[in-house]
């Protein structure tokens, strides 16, 4: 079985990894309310998807401060 003659230097391995980067997910606009949403998903703010309201009640979690 073949083995490398020398250790791969850190600069060489980092140059090879330059194309591995985080990509921002694509977003589209909701035609009903205009909010940004992931494509092919119901809107988080109004529940609208493909011309209909699919989520009847959109729950908003509010943090209440107790003293």
Keywords:
little secondary structure, two-stranded antiparallel ribbon, 1 helix, 4 strands, 10% helix
Please tally the β strands and state the result. 4
Q: Alpha-carbon distance between the termini? A: 68 Å
**Main sheet attributes: strand count, strand direction, barrel closure:** 2 strands, antiparallel
Major β-sheet strand ordering: 1-2
Q: How many helices does DSSP assign?
A: 1
Instruction: Name the structural class.
Output: little secondary structure
Share of β-strand residues: 5-15%
Pattern of helices and strands: HEEEE
CA-based gyration radius: 24 Å
Note the overall shape: elongated
**Overall mean confidence score, pLDDT:** 82
Unreliable residue stretches: none
Percent of residues in helices comes to 10-25%
């Amino acid at each position: 079985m073949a083995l490398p003659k020398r250790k791969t230097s850190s600069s060489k391995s980092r140059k090879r990894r330059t194309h591995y980067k985080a990509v921002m997910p694509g977003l589209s606009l909701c035609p009903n309310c205009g909010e940004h949403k992931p494509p092919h998903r119901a809107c988080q703010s109004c529940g609208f998807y493909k011309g209909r309201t699919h989520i009847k009640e959109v729950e908003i979690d509010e943090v209440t401060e107790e003293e």
